[in-house]
Amino acid sequence: MSSTSSTLPWDVQRPRRADDSVFLVTGGNAGIGYFVAEQLSTTGATVVLGSRNPAKAEVAMASIRARVPGARVRAVRLDLADLSSLETAVESLEMDCLDAVVHNAGVALDAPPRKETGDGHELMFGTNHLGHFALTQWLMPLLSAAPTARIVTMGSFAARSERLDLDDLESRKDYQPKRTYGRSKLAQMYFGVELDRRLRAAGSTVASVVVHPGGALDSLTPSRPPVHVRTTGARLGAAPAALLVQGKHAGAWPAVRAVLDPAVRGGQLWGPRVFGLRGEPRSQPVWTHLTDTSVAARLWDASCDLAGVALGTIPG
Ligand SMILES: NC(=O)c1ccc[n+]([C@@H]2O[C@H](COP(=O)([O-])OP(=O)(O)OC[C@H]3O[C@@H](n4cnc5c(N)ncnc54)[C@H](OP(=O)(O)O)[C@@H]3O)[C@@H](O)[C@H]2O)c1
Fold it and tell me: How far does the centroid of ligand 1 lie from the alpha carbon of residue 219, in Å?
């Protein structure tokens, strides 16, 4: 695992070409995921929006096509809260090979009550972590078929101050929405780092990279009507926040770079340059608690049990 910065220049406004590549972005119909998809579409790659809502996906695809001449964009129905649907979702991609997936979709609740997915998992842990964990299993044959595929996991700076409770991963005993959200993102980040460790051990050509968007506000995000409309009032009101955080278009930059830049390595953590909250992407030392392999291994085993998948065998 390396934490060194790439010295190659990287222009966030002009990502490198990736004409024959195919990328999947979960939650690509809105927010940061929309901008990841829009920016990846400028490379000539085929970009698939993973979305639980086909109507929203249509609107997002129309917006990308209007802004990116010749964009190759399509959509697949994907509901990460419904674990049993994910195998079918991957089959419906009708692909033999995938060059990268961005595990971006996420749900964040900021008030009680505790909610569950239809599968009976706490909603944020079940969607953000278990959904992507299970999806990875079904995507692995497609990723392994690509020459050098990448799995990019969208973490959060909020997870830096969190610690997992391995005896209460689903917050059944003690539910505090913000903490449960932060822990769900931390679980995703542990997963991303541990996945790369296992891929390397198996001699796989697939790499796993963890990124985070810093702080990314809708009010600092340029309009993409009707996907996202920023009013003048919202823009003016958010101006002071721009000193600290950024828009979702910029929150997309670390993920886009992690997909495209050959200098990015598996096991690395990428996030915004300025205080980890805003600015251009750079690699950052992997947080100390994320390097705890015993926590990562226990989380992995628990996730296999909870998601009902066997992501134990990583193909080489
Ligand atoms: N914004 C920030 O400051 C920030 C900071 C740290 C980390 N992050 C992370 O960045 C990612 C994107 O955040 P965002 O701010 O762009 O959020 P957002 O605007 O709320 O967009 C979330 C996306 O996830 C999708 N989604 C939610 N539940 C889903 C499910 N069950 N199955 C499939 N897709 C689902 C949403 O689909 P619908 O449109 O159908 O709801 C939407 O496309 C998340 O992982 C979040 O945790 C964001």
Answer: 16
Q: Tell me the CATH architecture of domain 22-307.
A: 3-Layer(aba) Sandwich (3.40)
pLDDT in tens, 66-78: 999 999 999 999 9
Positions annotated as catalytic residues are 181
Residue 312 predicted with pLDDT over 80:
no
313: confidence class by pLDDT, cuts 50, 70, 90 = low
For the chain, give every domain's residue range: 22-307
- pLDDT at residue 310, rounded to an integer: 83
- What's the CA gap between 296 and 192, in Å, rounded? 10
Structure tokens at 70: 């010749």
Task: In whole angstroms, give the CA distance from residue 61 to residue 259.
Answer: 20
Neighbouring C-beta atoms of residue 175, cutoff 10 Å: 16
Nearest to 266 by CA among 198, 313, 188, 316: 198
The CA 201 to ligand 1 mean position distance, Å, reads: 31
> What is the best residue among 156, 161, 183, 185 to mutate for testing ligand 1's pocket, by most ligand atoms within 8 Å of CB?
156
Residues 139-195: tens digit of each pLDDT: 999 999 999 999 999 999 999 999 999 999 999 999 999 999 999 999 999 999 999
User: Residue 46 belongs to what H/E stretch?
Assistant: strand 46-51
Question: Where do the H-state alpha helices sit in 145-176?
Answer: none
Q: To 5 degrees, how large is the angle CA 141–CA 146–CA 151?
A: 75
Report the pocket of ligand 1 as residue ranges, CB < 6 Å.
26-27, 29-33, 52-53, 56, 78-81, 104-108, 127, 154, 156, 185, 212-213, 215-216, 248, 251
Per-residue pLDDT averaged across 114-130, rounded?
98
